[in-house]
Every structure is written in C-alpha cells, then in structure tokens.
Write a structure and sequence with these properties.
By secondary structure, the chain is α+β, with helices and mostly antiparallel strands. The protein has two domains: 262 residues, no CATH class; 47 residues, no CATH class. It is built from eleven helices and 15 strands. Strands 1, 4, 5, 8, 9, 12, 13, 14 and 15 form a nine-stranded antiparallel β-sheet that branches. A four-stranded mixed β-sheet has the order 2-3-11-10, with no helix packed on it. Helix 1 packs across helix 9 and helix 1 crosses helix 10. It starts with a strand and ends with a helix.
Length: 324
C-alpha cells in the first residue's frame, strides 16, 4: 500500500469564471470563508474540489477510451465512466467478485469510486479545493509555497485584488436592420411592431409597457479571477498495486496537461497550468521529487495503457452489459 500527496501551484493562464450563484444579472465568484490569525473571517475565491476531482475523472476516462479505441458506449457505460454511475437504490456494499471485475475492467473506478450494480463503491482519491494564493491564505499553505513565492520574486496581495467584475452584452439580432431583412414578411412585421411599441413606451415613460417590450439585448455582469493568479491545489490518494498507482498518475497528468474549469470556457476563460509541484509519498515523507510530465517509454501511464489494451475485448463486452 502507498499513500500519495501531490501538491502543486496552478497559474490562471486565462481569467477564471467559477461562480457560486447569480443575483439578478450578476454572477458571483465561488468563495470560501478563511479564518485569519486575528480571528476575522475573509471570503477567499476558490475552485471547488468537486470541479477539480471531476476534471481528473473526465481526463482519465478519455485516456481510458483512447487506449480502448473509442468504442461506442451505451448510456449505463457512459454514466459509469464519466459520472461514476447513477445514484444507487441501495446502500449495500458491492460483492467482492463484482468489485474485482469492475476495477479490473475500469481501473479508474478503484480510485474515484461510484455506483454500479445498485451498490456504492467508495473512492480512494481526494481532491482539495484549489485555493487562491494571497495574503489571507499564505499562513495556511505548506511552507514550501511561501519559499517558492519568495524565490520567484512574486508579491502577495489581498484576495480582493485578484477579483474583477466585467460586463458583457448579448446582442439582439432583431435590432440589426440588415439581419431583419432575413426574416419572413410576417416575422419582420412582428419584430418592427414590437420595436415601435417599445419606442412609444419609452417616450411615454410607461415602465410596465417598456418592460414588456424590452429587447433581449441585456447586459450581464460577472466576477472573475484575473489572469495570472495563482492557486494551491492538493491531491491525496491510496493505492495498493502498480496498476492503481499508474492509474492515479494517468488521472493527474492527463488533467494537468489540459486544466479548464468554471464557466465561459468558449470565450477565453478557465485555463490553468501547473507551474510548480511536489509529489510526496506519505509512507516515506523524506523522499520529495519534482513533479514532471514525461513521454518516455517508462513514463507514468504506461502500465495503465498496457492493461486497457491487453483487456480491450473483455472491457468492451463488460461495458455493453454493465449496470450503472
């Protein structure tokens, strides 16, 4: 058995739009209360552990499917691989034989857990929230984070300095005279009548009528974490054999090479990269090695890929009949 703790510093290569709620037309950044040395509580931006853990599950699933040759999947198999299965109707434990077959066919399930055959399968990989590195959090982070910040000449500021509010406007195509020419005669007349009613309501200062006829071109505001911000993230896991250890590294490395979190991914938000990390094996804490991405034959992930490819036909058959 091995226990692993992988700690890393992530840099926001794009602004991060990870929101907790929307009030009116304004979306608020996800935050968590952090106690300060003087006893006060400050709300600090975070990326939830759920988002980070799901990112690892999803990226490792794509690695699994790539090694398998991307077979066609049924709905139960899709749920099992990307969501861990559906919520079970029973809280009983999975039979030993069923469990062994499941983790042999889908190695990621041993670490991420889920639900299959109407039973709960506990996971053994734990993802912390990604916590903004700032004045309000540095006292809670490992000592090496402060040393890295000092050595790289990076100053800390209050968490409030890393949050900005921006506004976007969704264009209403019906307001463009050129685009209105693309409408049918009946549709164009309806749009022009609506615009005329809106103009008349505005001139008459009739708020109720203006609200009824308002355009769909509404401004929306949202908070985002500024580009270049740093986050501290930790993953801990327990593995029992070489396949599980290699599956763990497949999940971490495949996610680390393409981390995208939060909303507005299609408009230049959410991308993070690993700029510094440490892999600490808790059973032997004196051994600390630098985290590295490698493409050598001996690289992390080789055992995982070889296992999936060697059992490809059995796995495909299993996925066709799995209940999840």
């Amino acid at each position: 058995m091995k226990q692993h703790r992988i700690e890393m510093i992530l840099r926001a290569d794009q602004p991060i739009a990870h929101h907790s709620e929307t009030i009116g037309n304004a979306a608020l950044a996800q935050r968590e209360g952090v106690r300060q040395p003087d006893g006060s509580i400050v709300a600090v931006p975070i990326i939830t552990g759920d988002s980070m853990r799901h990112g690892m599950r999803e990226s490792s699933t794509y690695a699994f499917l790539d090694a398998l040759g991307y077979p066609e999947l049924g709905e139960p198999a899709l749920r099992l691989l990307f969501n861990g299965g559906a919520s079970p109707g029973s809280s009983g434990a999975m039979k030993l034989g069923d469990y062994r077959e499941l983790v042999e066919m889908v190695p990621t399930m041993a670490l991420f857990g889920g639900n299959s055959l109407n039973r709960t399968l506990p996971g053994r990989i734990f993802a912390d929230e990604a916590l903004l590195v700032c004045e309000e959090t540095i006292h809670l982070l490992p000592e090496w984070v402060g040393e890295y910040m000092a050595a790289s000449g990076q100053e800390l500021m209050s968490c409030r300095a890393y949050v900005e509010e921006v506004q976007r406007v969704r264009m209403d195509a019906s307001l463009d005279p050129g685009k209105r020419k693309l409408l049918s005669a009946g549709a164009r007349e309806g749009v022009e009548q609506r615009l005329l009613r809106s103009e008349n309501a505005s001139e008459a200062e009739d708020g109720a009528a203006a609200e009824k006829e308002k355009s769909m071109m509404m401004p929306r505001r949202f908070e985002r974490i500024v580009r270049g911000s740093l986050f501290f993230w930790r993953v801990t896991a327990t593995t029992f054999d070489a396949l599980e250890e290699d599956t763990l590294w497949t999940a971490i490395l495949s996610f680390a090479m393409n981390i995208v979190v939060g909303g507005k991914k299609g408009t230049g938000h959410g991308r993070l990269s690993v700029i510094h990390a440490r892999d600490l094996e808790l059973a032997r804490p004196s051994e600390a090695v630098e985290f590295a991405l490698s493409t050598r034959e001996q690289a992390k992930g080789r055992i995982f890929r070889d296992h999936v490819r060697a059992n490809a036909e059995r796995i495909k058959t299993y996925l066709e009949t799995v209940s999840a």
